[in-house]
Amino acid sequence: MALWTDLITPAELTGYVRAALDDFERQKGTLARWLPNSTTPDIVVRFVAGETGMQPVAQYRSYDAETPVGSVPGGRRVTLELPAVGLKVRVSEYDQLRSRGADSDQLIVNSIERVAARVAGAVSDRVEVERGKAIETAAFSINENGFVQSGSWGRIAGHTVTAAVLWSTSATAKPLDDLAAWRDVYVANVGAQPGAMLISTRVLAALARTAEFKSIAATVAGTPSVVSQAVVEQVLTAYGFPPIYVYDRQANVGGTTTKVLSDNKVFLLPAPTDPGNAEGTDLGATFWGQTLESREADYGIAPFDQPGIVAGAWKTRDPIAAWVHSAAIALPALANPNLSFVATVL
User: Fold this and answer.
1) Among 248, 282, 253, 290, which residue's Cα sits nearest to residue 267?
2) Torsion from C-alpha of 155, 156, 160, 165, nearest 10 degrees
3) Within 13 Å, how many C-alpha atoms sit on residue 197's CB side?
4) CA 88, CA 57: separation in Å to the nearest integer?
């Protein structure tokens, strides 16, 4: 198999794949809003992880006295090896044969770009699954194609709970009482209010059906005939809860359609940010390392652009076939796992 640059260069295809990945995540929804993408020219990242987001207060001193020495609470240095992830997909012989004609070159490029978009979506889905594991379990575990790595980010036990009465028991469930109690625990341990409540459509519907919520909605929203998402948001805002974000993304994992986050839980998180926030957040980041392919001279990728997913078109002679090959090195990480809170409600 040889790199095929006659119609589209690896640098051009890499730019296309990166744009396609961003578009895919905008359409599907992404947890990169809480674990944003950050690139590094390495396969190892180092960062300081903290147990909470609380900083010790400063201290008064008398004039001419030495300023007290402070410290960062719960900080620990973390070194993380980033795993390789990627996919190669064949451009079908049929598509290539159908592309013959006056505009054959452009038609073949179009076929390559369609396959490249599929490859970008596959990489996006795989990394998103790991983001989901990090947020839901505060851990990671990968055992694929000879790569084995696992560990825990160390979230405290009190930030993983189950409602005393599941919200599916609509007559007696107390979702607002539950949310208030969990918010208080979050504030006590973190020192700040959660900035987002991440839920599934299923949890949203169950919340709206509870007798307690219907009763309160009647006083806040004027007895609505249907407790819609807008009404739910209005009630939650009135009671000082953070904005809700509905997230239902799924991925094909080993041939099985899998929910990225369990649809029976509520996730309290910091406020979302731009998925491209290279500085990450207090919660963590998704680190994208630098592949060997990006450094190959025939890929023609500028040094500044080398970290992140890259792609190239390849060709075989027997049989004559074209392939789109993608390569990336990526893993989400939690810097402050206690900024996440997970409650089973269904």
Assistant:
1) 248
2) -170
3) 23
4) 53
* Tokens standing for residue 305: 């652009």
Distance CA 61, CA 68 (A): 8
Burial of residue 213 (number of CB atoms within 10 Å: 0-12, 13-18, 19+): buried
Which amino acid appears at position 338 of this protein? N
Q: Which residue has the tokens 């851990």?
A: 139
Per residue in 76-119, pLDDT (tens digit) is: 677 778 888 988 888 766 666 666 655 667 778 888 888 999 99
How far apart CA 205 and CA 328 sit, in angstroms, is 38
- Token duo for residue 218: 């009647």
Amino acid (1-letter code) at residue 116: A
Measured N-to-C along each axis, helices 211-220 and 229-238 cross at an angle, to the nearest 10 degrees, of 80
Extended beta strands in 163-319, E state: 196-199, 244-246, 250-253, 256-259, 265-269, 284-288, 310-317
Q: Are 285 and 130 in contact (CB under 8 A)?
A: no
Collapsed DSSP state (helix, strand, coil) of residue 103: coil
My answer on whether omega of the bond before 41 falls inside 30° of 0, hence cis, is no
Per-residue model confidence as pLDDT tens digits over 152-205: 888 999 999 999 999 999 999 999 999 999 999 999 999 999 999 999 999 999
Task: State the Cα angle at 326 between 322 and 327, rounded to 5°.
Answer: 145
What is the DSSP pairing of strand 284-288 with strand 265-269? unpaired
Residues contacting residue 28 through CB under 8 Å, at least 6 positions apart? 124, 128, 249
pTM: 0.88
